[in-house]
Amino acid sequence: MIISPQEIQNRLLEWFGKNGRHWIPWKLKKDGSIPKSGESISPYEIWIAEVMLQQTQLKVVLPYWEKWMEFFPALTDLAKANLEDILFVWQGLGYYSRAKRIHQSSKKLIKCFGENSCQDPASWPVELDEWMSLPGIGRSTAGSIISSAFDLPIPILDGNVKRILSRLFATEKTLIKEDKRLWELSSLLISTKNPRDFNQALMDFGTIICTPKKPSCSCCPIQNFCVAYTKYDPQHFPKKQMQTRKPLQEIGIGIVFNQNGELLIDQRLESSSMGGMWEFPGGKKISDESIEETIVRELKEELGIVVRVGAKLLSFEHAYTHKKLFFTVHICDWISGKPKPLASQKLLWVAPEKLFDFPFPAANTKIISELHKHLCI
Ligand code: SF4
């Protein structure tokens, strides 16, 4: 079978014209209209959205992006904001290091290009290596920002594009091993006339037609070029990595009240994962220890306080990328010792009804909701 890049481009662009998601807000001009071919639009909104979209679906990202634009409508607002406010807006979206890297990048951009220049799309970087030099921006994210903002022919290789290409060319190796070849294929296919539309067409096509499970091959405009469809079963592509089981770790958490009815929260070290977020104190259970003993030991080690472990509030499992944690949360009485941030950057006594004023990781927000129910707040 002869694969014609030109024909694939034409068919995908035609499909995109009729079926694409032309409403995505960061792909539009400020007045809500669709940019013309070759016209530049503001990269700021696209950049924020592209980072939010890493490991997260568009429908989940949309409300966070809208909230972000209310709080930080321009690069200068973002660069001046403090990290805690940024984490507060990001709260619930997960992978918090992304928010920290956006903040670092905003300061770097302002330093390189000046406060006023960033109002004009033409003054933003257009080179791949300039974008990739920013924290948290890989080649595909950079390509998507540049092609979407400036309509330049820079290829992308996100999860959707990898899947489409691995099926189109029936690549035998797993995605990690095929990375170099898939980049070559994406570069080969990109349209030089309509790169913005073409990259968006690929993303929309992967979301709507060439989906991970049960792709809609019967209405696929490039079906006759697809090796996986004509020779094999498309669902067998891309080839899967051997799955490793996520290890499960038990965590004991203490909700420590003082005589004023306030409870103790601590702020994670900047250098740790989810740095700058707030959480309830606690830590990992070690073998042969009961969860109550874990809480007593962790609070002694991390806060220098002695507590009496009381009733259990809740327990639940929470999955992260590489691990699963099983949390058990107990209400505790504070017996002695002045709390000190021995393993965190700050401690605060907070009234329970004020907890949602602080940025907490998703697992901790479950605890807050259950605590509010328990306290009838
Ligand atoms: S034929 Fe099916 S598997 Fe092949 S590109 Fe089209 S939707 Fe994807």
Please outline what is shown here.
The protein has helices at 5-19, 43-53, 58-71, 75-80, 83-90, 97-113, 128-132, 139-150, 159-168, 179-189, 195-208, 227-231, 291-303, 362-374, and strands at 248-257, 263-267, 278-279, 282-284, 306-319, 324-336, 346-350. The chain is an alpha+beta fold and 377 residues long.
Class by SSE composition: alpha+beta
User: What is the arithmetic mean of pLDDT?
Assistant: 92
Per CATH, the class of the largest domain reads Mainly Alpha
* Shape annotation: globular
Uncertain runs are none
**From the alpha-carbon coordinates, what is the Rg to the nearest angstrom?**
25 Å
Beta strand %? 5-15%
Q: Count of DSSP E strands?
A: 7
Proportion of residues in helical segments: 40-55%
Terminal CA distance:
66 Å
Q: Can you characterise this structure?
A:
The protein has two domains: 5-236, Endonuclease III, domain 1, CATH 1.10.340; 248-374, Alpha-Beta Complex (Nucleoside Triphosphate Pyrophosphohydrolase). The protein has 14 helices and seven strands. It has helices at 5-19, 43-53, 58-71, 75-80, 83-90, 97-113, 128-132, 139-150, 159-168, 179-189, 195-208, 227-231, 291-303, 362-374; strands at 248-257, 263-267, 278-279, 282-284, 306-319, 324-336, 346-350. Strand 5 and strand 6 form a beta hairpin. The longest helix has 17 residues, at 97-113. The radius of gyration is 25 Å and the shape is globular. The N and C termini lie far apart (66 Å). The model has no long low-confidence stretch (mean pLDDT 92). Bound molecules: iron/sulfur cluster.
